[in-house]
Structure formats: structure tokens, C-alpha cells
Amino acid sequence: MKNTTTRVALIQMSCEPSLEANLAKAVARVREAAENGATLICLPELFRAQYFCQREEHELFGITESIPGPSTKALAAVVREHKITLVASLFERRAPGLYHNTAAIMDHAGDPAKDYIIDVYRKMHIPDDPLYYEKFYFTPGDLGFKAQHTSAGPIGTLVCWDQWYPEGARMTALKGAETLFYPTAIGWHPSEKEEFGERQYDAWQTIQRAHAIANGVWVCGVNRVGHEHGDVIWDDADGHHDLKGPEGAGLEFWGGSFIADPFGRVIAKASHDKEEILYADLDSKEVEITRQHWPFLRDRRIDAYDGIVKRFLD
């Protein structure tokens, strides 16, 4: 009988100021996950750096990289060695002055000359909130929502702020994805944590569980942990760069990475304050079984949704 189960691993990690230290940690964690049997692995959003979008700083465009590039080259060795599929979120330099928040999907069946990259997804929804000044850095994605057909099954990759939009999850599921990945960097403003922290995390998890239920898919949300001010250190052809983040309380990333089944039940959840690798075994048969019992895709009124493409229905 054909095995329909895939072991998934979510890498919940903290990020240091050093780009190279973060890349080395990511490579080590991915290798550890693969050695523990995971064949489908996801890193958190922009794992190579502390969350630098806490301020607007032109010099930080110096940390961008091409795809394929240095990060995918380092990760490609693990993808090849352990025959895995990997989702890696990067600050992409597409062209001079044009940058994206991009997830590279790497698969051992891909082309080694392209670092085993079989697809990329560029973050579609770009936030602009206090200490989340992403519109300064990232051009909105122009590739649309898509499914990636990998050796580990059909997946869909979205990124962080995308997780609040049911349209993105729906479109990705309609393209054939059976597991949605959301690499994320989200945390508390320390001054708000006591009053709002619990409900903020609950809302974050609930909206993604709702995507699982509405579409009959597995959902994997992977976040970072740690208190960051956005300090970034790197070396390049122009020399040594050591940029301090803004003064103040910074951001406390709340971790809490989780995996929800197609019924919306949380089957695995990480802590809020520790680095860890979260594992779960996902059975692709659960997608069809759940959709048979809750036939939401069957009963959609596709003749009645024209208004969804308008900003507001006056």
C-alpha cells in the first residue's frame, strides 16, 4: 500500500545580528530535522537577519541577495544530501532598486544548477505598521498565488501578512495545494503584551485554523522567537557593516508555531519563548476525507462572488 504520510518540520528559531550566524544555524536546524525523518521543512520569515523592518534604513538594502544566491547555495547541500523539500524565506534583490520578500521552494528533484529551486513565491500583502515598516523595503509580489508540486506533495507557500487574508488561502488551495505554509515574523510590542498579547496570538492562530477548515487543507505557521531591536551585522565587498536597530522596547517575537489539520485542530504547537523544531506526520488522505464530509468547495456559489474583486461594495 502506498505511503500517504509526510513528516513535516517547522524550524522555530531566534535570530542574531550576524547574517552568517543565522544562516549557519538554519542549515544546522534543517539538517537536524532531516536526520529526524522530516522530508518537508519550513524556515521562518527572513531567517537570515533580525527583523530589520523596525526602521527605514537605506543601507539595509545591502543585505539583499539574488535567488539563487548565497543562502540557497548553503541550503542546497542539505536538500541534496537528505532528499528533502524546503521552504526558505529571503530578502530578494530582483533588480537594482527592486526587492521582494520571497520564499524559495527547494526540492531534491529540482535542478542542482539552480540550487534545487523549483519555484518562488513573492509576498503579496505588505504591511506598514509601527515597527513593521515593510512597504519601505518590499515590492508587492507579482506572481500571484500558486501551488508548488513537490516531491513531498502539493503545497502552497504564503508569507506572514498574507495569513490574514482568506482570499490568498482560498486561491492557493484552488490551485491544488493541500498543505499551506506561512513562514512568519510576528511578535508583541512589549508595552501591549500584558493587555493585548493573549488575544493577538489567539487571533493569529484562529485565522489560520479557519483557512484549514474553509479549504480542507493542512496549515503550518512557523514563527521566530526572541526579543529583537533589528540589529544587523554583515560583511560584503564594501566592508564591514554593523547597524543598530532603533532605541526603544523592540519586538518580542511570540513563537507559538503550530500545525493544524484539515478540520482545524491544532495537532502540534511550539512554545512562545524557546527555539525548537516542531514535527508532525501529515496524511494526505485526510484532505479528501475532510472535504467529503465538509464539502465547502462543492457548495461554493462561484456565480455570486463578483464583488470580491472590488475594494468595497458601496
Give an overview in words.
- The chain is α+β, with helices and mostly antiparallel strands.
- It has one domain (5-300): Carbon-nitrogen hydrolase (Nitrilase/N-carbamoyl-D-aminoacid amidohydrolase).
- 24% of the residues lie in helices and 31% in strands.
- The protein is built from 5 helices and 19 strands.
- It has helices at residues 19-35, 70-82, 166-174, 190-215, 285-293, and strands spanning 5-12, 40-42, 85-95, 98-107, 117-122, 128-129, 132-133, 147-150, 153-157, 179-183, 187-188, 218-222, 225-228, 232-236, 239-243, 251-254, 258-260, 266-269, 276-283.
- The strands form 5 sheets. It has a 6-stranded mixed sheet. Strands 8-9-10-12-17-18 form a 6-stranded mixed sheet, with helices on one face. The chain has a 3-stranded antiparallel sheet with strand order 11-16-13.
- Helix 1 (19-35) runs parallel beside helix 2 and helix 3 (166-174) runs parallel beside helix 4.
Tell me the Rg in angstroms.
19 Å
What is the CATH architecture annotation? 4-Layer Sandwich
The total strand number stands at 19
The CATH class: Alpha Beta
Give the strand order, joined by hyphens, for the main sheet: 5-4-3-2-1-19
Helix and strand string, N-terminal first? EHEHEEEEEEEHEEHEEEEEEEEH
Number of helical regions: 5
Net shape: globular
- Give the mean pLDDT: 97
The N- to C-terminal Cα distance equals: 55 Å
CATH topology, which one?
Answer: Nitrilase/N-carbamoyl-D-aminoacid amidohydrolase
| CATH level-4 homologous superfamily | Carbon-nitrogen hydrolase
Report the portion of residues in β strands: 25-35%
Provide the structure class.
Answer: alpha+beta
Overall helicity: 10-25%
Largest beta sheet, briefly?
6 strands, mixed
Low-confidence stretches: none
How many separate structural domains? 1
